[in-house]
Amino acid sequence: MTEAAADKTFSFKLVSPEKILMDEPAMQVVVPGEEGDLGVLKGHSPFVVSVRPGVVSIQKTTGGDVQKIFVAGGFADISAENCTVLAEEAIAVDDLNKEELEQNISNLKEDLGMVQGAHDKQRVENALVIAKAKLSAVTGTLQL
């Protein structure tokens, strides 16, 4: 990375409950915030945001490939020099399988019709939201 490019980078960390998944410089990160997608560049104003299930896009260099990682929710802590995403679950979009997700969604819809009790219903509904968000990440289309 050239010195000029390094001047445009900030520290990016992606952390799941199990481990630190990424700790590298980035030029741009897009975080799926609860209020909408949030683009982060060096010099960003300090901000803490809830993260909805969706894709975090990381660009490490100008014109470089964009790495896409699905997160199931969490929080992002952003400052002028750092962006840390604390994710409930994180998996590379390339590692998601469309057919498995479609089957999982079908199973969860079946489960939803059979569960009793508000707590169990909420748990299945939450799993369904995450499964649909994963499928959206793979297909690039919104799943309703």
Structural class of the secondary elements?
alpha+beta
Task: Please tell me the CATH architecture of the largest domain by its name.
Answer: Sandwich
Mean pLDDT: 91
Work out the number of β strands.
Answer: 10
**What CATH first level of the largest domain would be assigned?**
Mainly Beta
Number of separate structural domains: 2
Provide the helix percentage: 25-40%
What is the terminal-to-terminal distance? Answer: 42 Å
Beta fraction? 35-45%
Number of helices: 3
CATH topology of the largest domain: ATP Synthase, domain 1
Low-confidence stretches: none
Q: Can you describe what's shown?
A:
The termini are far apart. The strands form 2 sheets. The protein has a 5-stranded mixed sheet, with no helix packed on it. The chain folds into 2 domains: 3-93, F0F1 ATP synthase delta/epsilon subunit, N-terminal (ATP Synthase, domain 1), CATH 2.60.15.10; 96-139. It is elongated, with a radius of gyration of 17 Å. The chain is α+β, with helices and mostly antiparallel strands and 144 residues long. α2 packs antiparallel against α3. The chain is built from 3 helices and 10 strands, in the order αββββββββββαα.
Task: Provide a quick synopsis of the model.
With 144 residues, this protein is of the alpha+beta class. It is built from three helices and ten strands.
Key phrases:
144 residues; alpha+beta; 2 domains; five-stranded mixed β-sheet; five-stranded antiparallel β-sheet; 3 helices; 38% strand
Set out the fold topology.
Layout: H1 3-6, E1 10-15, E2 20-26, E3 28-33, E4 36-40, E5 47-51, E6 54-59, E7 66-71, E8 74-78, E9 82-87, E10 90-92, H2 98-114, H3 118-139
Parallel strand pairs: 1-9
Antiparallel strand pairs: 1-2, 3-4, 3-6, 5-8, 6-7, 7-10, 8-9
